[in-house]
């Protein structure tokens, strides 16, 4: 049976941050997530959630906030018997009560809005929310259920038909019943949030862990980058003796580790040994190599062999030989790219873990660790202690800060477990050193003991206040096993607090894998199997791309574009398809849509040549230059004679992003230009200027010339400032003014730069280490770039490292240098 929960759009992010909905009174008491939940007239009780057997139509009380009705649909078969209590039946509608939190799942839960505009507005805000982890996964389940306006014919039809309506107009008579006076108890909610946080973090950590060698390479790369950055940004651009030694030793160690695991390096080594051993004198490989060196022909010998190209960290020296931000960026990017390839290979060689093979939670919410890769007794006891937040008692009783309380609590658990063996056990000295580190600020060696559980526990005590800090710290010190530290974090901070930047690798990753994971977690936490646990497919009619300014503008004005509810879905589908193709870079299909919209073009030789080879179906990846050359080569000289101007125009339009003319040229393939809706859309978006174009070579005669400053005429002028980049409160506005950046990148960077600046403020993670993090403008701007593109152990970077994004960012870097650094 399906039941419907009335709520409002202001609660959307709150609900999808925890994937649950609770009675109103729970939110202020539970101690995690958002403390406020907005009531609606059809669901406004403190102790209970009210559900209906039919879809409720209700109004939102007017206030200054933008708020609209929202209804959640659930399937009762997904919950245990007795989970919902029937309160009454009135006018064909059954009303049910639930005195506890209702967990949601993406298999059968649906979320409805009254209009496409309201849905679009909510999804746009969800895109900006760090806590809303599920809006993309639930997008196929988020739909519109508009209220139909009854005509005279419709009213007459209802009078003479016996068909039962699936919705009803709510009024207070539907909630005229008594509610049990039960005290609000949120302890189960708190426990479930921490268990769920532990499960997600542990699995993400298990799947993202790397080999010891890759872990060491990641730590070395960070040290080398920081040292080189300090040298490049120093006044004399020369390394000190200590820096020179650090770089030399770091490169040597990097190459040694890299050559031991890189397939191409190993292949080269085997080939050389084979060729050297095959000599007429019967010399050993070592002697043959020494002889060729003595004769001075070893390099020539190697050059004649089909050796594979391999990475050599010695190229890092070039950024000191030719000092420039560009050279520094290039060599660091090469090093990071090399490590990412090894990491990807590492992950590809092993299957993702099945959660049911690592962990289980029984009906009493007791944790069972099934992972046999380590001795889990202390770890399990520690995790269960974190579930109960026992460290907080230490804080309250002794008046100490949380890191020390965490270390003390974990130490006491281990001491009680070891009993008389505590004093002689190496763990005793290790925990004592950790406590001294917090109490007396003494040095602490994280790897002083060969025990992954204890070192992970110590790492959490040091950096466990924030998941991003913990992830960065584990990479920095060379950890390769992330699951233990991540698990402690999840058990302590809970699921709701996890940002989507951390969870997206799992939730928005492989759908089949997440489908199996989510159904198993549901069984563990809810004590019941889900039937037909299949993730729904995305629907073209509802999956409007929220990042598109043009698409958002149209959907926000949907009632003006098409007032008839029955026709709105057709318009939304057409807009969604047009947005999708307009947003793709160098898309043959988008080009053909645009080209075919030109008057009488389909009868020309040029169009027929492209159609004959099915250019629209070409799924290849092209640079701007390759894209133009491909089209020219297909069309040929005969076609270019008459249609070159139109072809260039279509290429130019295809290259633009968020451009009304390009968008309309694509839209007319899905919506007739003679339709009233199309004409209203054309009028609506005609005032919007193209936000940007790709960095695209433009034709001049029969040649191609470069165009570096695309759309620079509309940029606000750059006024140099004496402010520091990491202190200037206006830097986010400056980034927003750079209209050559794609709108999503521009808005993301304008938010993230504020987070970055906090790292250099007192108490920030860079503030305490000025030697490793110079604060001159050029250094911090360069650091900002690497921070944005940094791939944190396989988690999505702030800016995806595509060719186009790097081109945009280079222009932004130059503008930032002009504003802050070039004086």
UniProtKB/TrEMBL annotation:
Domain of life: Bacteria
Identification of the protein by name: Uncharacterized protein
Organism: Bacteroides thetaiotaomicron
């Amino acid at each position: 049976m399906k039941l419907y929960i009335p709520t409002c759009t202001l609660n959307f992010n709150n609900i999808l941050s925890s994937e649950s909905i609770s009675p109103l009174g729970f939110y202020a008491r539970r101690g995690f997530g958002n403390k406020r939940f907005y009531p609606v007239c059809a669901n406004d009780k403190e102790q209970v959630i009210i559900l209906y057997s039919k879809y409720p139509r209700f109004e939102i009380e007017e206030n200054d906030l933008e708020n609209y009705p929202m209804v959640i649909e659930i399937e009762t078969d997904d919950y245990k018997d007795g989970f919902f209590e029937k309160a009454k039946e009135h006018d064909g509608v059954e009303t049910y009560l639930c005195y506890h939190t209702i967990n949601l799942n993406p298999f059968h839960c649906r979320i409805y809005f009254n209009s496409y505009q309201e849905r679009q507005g909510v999804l746009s805000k969800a895109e900006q929310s760090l806590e809303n982890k599920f809006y993309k996964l639930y997008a196929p389940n988020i739909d519109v259920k508009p209220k139909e306006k009854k005509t005279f014919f419709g009213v007459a039809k209802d009078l003479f038909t016996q068909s039962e309506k699936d919705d009803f107009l709510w009024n207070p008579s539907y909630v005229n019943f008594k509610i049990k006076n039960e005290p609000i108890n949120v302890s189960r909610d708190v426990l479930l949030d921490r268990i769920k946080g532990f499960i997600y973090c542990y699995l993400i950590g298990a799947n993202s862990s790397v080999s010891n060698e890759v872990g060491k390479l990641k730590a070395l790369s960070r040290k080398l980058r920081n040292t080189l950055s300090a040298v490049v940004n120093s006044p004399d651009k020369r390394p000190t003796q200590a820096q020179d030694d650090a770089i030399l030793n770091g490169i040597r160690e990097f190459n040694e580790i890299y050559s031991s695991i890189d397939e191409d390096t190993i292949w080269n080594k085997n080939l050389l040994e084979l060729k050297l051993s095959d000599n007429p004198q019967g010399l050993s490989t070592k002697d043959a190599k020494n002889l060729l060196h003595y004769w001075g022909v070893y390099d020539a010998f190697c050059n004649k062999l089909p050796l594979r190209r391999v990475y050599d960290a010695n190229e890092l020296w070039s950024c000191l030989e030719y000092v420039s931000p560009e050279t520094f960026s290039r060599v660091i990017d090469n090093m990071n790219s090399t490590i990412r390839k090894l990491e990807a290979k590492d992950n590809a060689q092993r299957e993702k873990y099945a959660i049911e093979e690592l962990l289980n939670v029984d009906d009493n919410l007791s944790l069972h660790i099934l992972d046999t890769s380590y001795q889990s007794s202390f770890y399990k006891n520690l995790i269960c202690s974190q579930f109960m937040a026992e460290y907080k008692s230490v804080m309250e009783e002794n008046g100490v800060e949380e890191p020390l309380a965490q270390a003390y609590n974990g130490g006491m658990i281990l001491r009680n477990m070891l009993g008389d063996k505590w004093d002689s056990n190496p763990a005793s000295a290790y925990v004592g050193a950790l406590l001294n580190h917090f109490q007396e600020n003494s040095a602490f060696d994280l790897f002083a003991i060969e025990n992954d559980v204890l070192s992970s526990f110590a790492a959490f005590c040091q950096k466990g206040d924030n998941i991003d800090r913990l992830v960065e710290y584990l990479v920095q010190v060379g950890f390769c096993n992330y699951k233990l530290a991540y698990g402690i974090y999840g058990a302590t901070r809970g699921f709701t607090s996890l940002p989507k930047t951390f969870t997206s690798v799992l939730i928005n990753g492989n759908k089949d894998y997440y489908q199996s994971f989510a159904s198993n977690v549901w069984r563990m936490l809810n004590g019941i199997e889900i039937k037909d646990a299949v993730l729904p497919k995305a629907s073209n009619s509802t999956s409007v791309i929220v990042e598109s300014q043009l698409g958002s503008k149209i959907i926000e004005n949907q009632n003006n574009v098409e007032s008839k509810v029955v026709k709105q879905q057709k318009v939304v589908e057409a807009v969604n398809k047009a947005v999708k193709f307009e947003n793709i870079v160098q898309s043959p299909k988008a080009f053909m849509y645009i080209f075919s919209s030109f008057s009488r073009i389909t009868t020309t030789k040029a169009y027929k040549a492209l159609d004959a080879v099915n250019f629209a179906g070409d799924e290849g990846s092209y640079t701007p230059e390759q894209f133009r050359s491909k089209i020219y080569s297909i069309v040929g000289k005969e076609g270019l004679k008459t249609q070159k101007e139109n072809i260039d125009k279509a290429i130019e339009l295809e290259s633009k992003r968020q451009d009304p003319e390009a968008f309309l040229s694509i839209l007319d393939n899905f919506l007739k230009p003679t339709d009233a809706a199309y004409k209203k859309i054309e009028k609506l978006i005609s005032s919007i200027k193209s936000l940007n174009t790709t960095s695209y070579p433009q034709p001049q005669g029969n040649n191609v010339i470069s165009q570096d400053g695309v759309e620079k005429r509309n940029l606000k002028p750059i006024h140099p400032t004496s402010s520091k980049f990491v202190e200037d409160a206006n830097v986010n506005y400056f980034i927003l003014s750079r209209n050559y950046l794609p709108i999503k990148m521009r808005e993301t960077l304008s938010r993230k730069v504020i987070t970055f600046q906090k790292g250099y403020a007192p108490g920030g993670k860079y503030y305490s280490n000025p030697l490793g993090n110079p604060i001159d403008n050029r250094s911090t701007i360069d650091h900002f770039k690497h921070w944005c593109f940094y791939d944190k152990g396989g988690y999505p970077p702030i800016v995806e490292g595509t060719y186009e994004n790097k081109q945009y960012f280079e222009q932004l870097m130059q503008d930032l240098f002009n504003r802050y650094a070039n004086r």
